Amino acid sequence: MSSRVQLKVVLLGQMDCGKTCLVTRYMSGTFLPRSQTTIGAAFCQRNVRVRQRNIVVGIWDTAGMEQFRSMSSQYYRGAKAAVVCYDVTVGESFGDARFWIKEVQKSEPNCKVYLCGCKVDLVRNGEKRREVDEHNAADFAEEYETTFTETSSKTGENVDKLFLKIVEDYADLLPSLEEDESAVTALEESNKSAFSKCPC
Ligand SMILES: Nc1nc2c(ncn2[C@@H]2O[C@H](COP(=O)(O)OP(=O)(O)O)[C@@H](O)[C@H]2O)c(=O)[nH]1
Ligand SMILES: [Mg+2]
Questions:
Q1: Is the Cβ atom of 67 under 6 angstroms away from ligand 1?
Q2: Ligand nearest to the CA of 63
């Protein structure tokens, strides 16, 4: 049975920068070594327990529309978090990140943005040269008031941590459990007094 999504997370970024692999690693703990273009609408859902709450997280992945730099407004609608990805070995993809941050901030001003440098394993093992400096990316993230991290979907580095932070940030904005309880108590009290006033 599917539950109602509370926390909508959207993935954004240049084609091939690693978005689908990031979602796959988080959802199933696996890595797809072959390039697979996301076909059709990609959506997945996961229940996460944080701060003594169960939160239903829905993750939307782009379906190739990113190559035209045009996502439908429906894609952004209601998103509470956006993971804006780039490839740490492709400088141009970092330039694109700026575009996506502006797009999401324009469409959903309350959506929290997380900047994510993907494929960091390629520079750690010397397979590829880094084209995006970590400090520049961190400064850039600060300028746009976003959170910054570098991940590898191949090794799993920082992947769970990134999504856990997204869910925790969301949970921190919810009314506290005590407030929920006192609201329920207040409601019960008001119901009681409503009954006591009942003429029948
Ligand atoms: N080494 C390495 N390759 C990656 C990583 N993430 C994605 N890739 C590869 O990069 C290519 C594009 O990845 P994909 O997730 O489909 O990109 P998308 O178009 O942004 O969804 C694929 O061939 C992946 O196997 C990573 O963390 N490390
Ligand atoms: Mg994809």
A1: no
A2: 2
Tell me which of 126 and 199 has the higher pLDDT: 126
CA distances in angstroms from 107 to 40, 78, 163, 177, listed in the order given:
22, 10, 22, 31
Tokens of 110: 């309350």
Which residues are close to ligand 2, an ion, with C-beta < 5 A? Answer: 19-20, 38
Query: How far, in Å, from the CA of 1 to the mean position of ligand 1?
Result: 31
Per-residue pLDDT tens for 65-85? 787 787 888 899 999 999 999
Amino acid symbol at 43: F
CATH number at residue 50: 3.40.50.300
**Residue 97 belongs to some domain of the structure:** yes
CB-ligand 1 contact for 25 (6 Å cutoff):
no
Considering only 68-77, 113-122, 143-152, which range has the smallest mean pLDDT?
68-77
Which numbered ligand comes closest to the C-alpha of 24?
Answer: 1
- For residue 73, how far is the Cα from the chain centroid? 17
122 lines ligand 1 (CB under 6 A): yes
What the block records as the tokens of 12 is 């954004």
C-alpha–C-alpha distance, residues 172 and 92, integer Å: 34
Q: Residue whose CA is closest, atom 4 of ligand 1?
A: 119
At residue 157, the 3 state secondary structure works out as coil
Question: Ligand 1 mean position to 34 CA, how many Å?
Answer: 8
User: Is 181 contained in some domain?
Assistant: no
**Is position 12 within any domain?**
yes
Is residue 183 a part of any domain in this protein? no
